[in-house]
Input
Amino acid sequence: MTNTAESSFTALEEVCAATGLASRGAEPIRLAENQIWRLTAGVIVRMSPPDRRETAAREVRVARWLADNGVRAVTPIDVDQPVERAGRVATFWEEAPSQTHGSIADVALALRELHALEPPAFHIGTLAPFVRVPERLAAAALPDEDRRWLLDLHTDLAERWTTCLPTGMPHRAVHGDAWPGNIVRLKGGGRLLMDLERFSLGPPEWDLVSTAVRTRTTGAVTEDEYAEYCCLYGYDVTEWVGYDLLARARELRMAAYAAQHAASDPSWRAQAQHRVDCLRGRCGPRPWRWVGIL
Output
C-alpha cells in the first residue's frame, strides 16, 4: 500500500470496529478528498474530513427521506452513524447494484421527480454554490496572476448571488451535483441517485444548469440531447434571466476543482490551465470542449 492507502486503511479499521463491521479484505475504490472503501460484507464506507460531520449526518437523513418518498437513492445501512474515528467522519451504505452512468434523459427525469417533492420538514441546509472554492484556489497549481483573477471572479459572483439573484422557480430540495455519474442507470432497470453530499434547499435551476453547462460550455452534451433533456423536464434553464450567473458559478467551480487537483497530479495541469484560459477569454467562444478529470 502507499502511505495514503495505509493511513486510510488505519482509519477504516477504527470506524469499522466502532460499528461491528469487519475491515479485513476491504478494497479501496477512491482515495482522494473523500475516501471510499468496499467491505467484503457488501458495504461501502465513505470517509470524509472531520469538519464534514454535519454534511455526513445530513446525507444519511436525506437518503432515508428519499426512500420514504419513493425516490430510489443510495441506502444507508442500519447502524448509528456517522462515526468519527482517527480524524475521519464515516458513513456506511449498502453497495449499489451493478450500474452504468445514466443518460441525459435519466438526469432530466430524476430531477423532475426530485423537484416535484415538497422539501423535507427537517433542516437540509441552504445551497452554497461556492463552497470550498477559495480553499481550492489557494491550493491550486496556477500562476499567481491567474489565481488572483479567479479569486476576484469568485468575489464578484458570490456578491451577485447574494444581492441580485433573479427570481426563478420556488426553492426545492436540490441534488447539488446532478450529472450522469451521480444519477446512474441500474443494469436491472431503474435509476439511482448517488452522492448526496451537496443535497440542500435552493433554486432548482442550480441542478438544471449542470447539464446546460455540459452542453454550452464543455460540449460534453449535444444540442439534440439537451433539447430532449429540456422536453423531458419541461423547462429550458438557458432561457432564464439568471442563467449566466449560475453558469459562470458552475464554470468557476469546475476550473477550481481541476486547478486544485493539478497541484498533486501533474497530468491534470494542462487541462486546469486550459479551463482558466477559457474563462479569461484566451480561447474564443463557448463551447470550449473541456476534458473531464477524475
The longest strand covers residues 88-94.
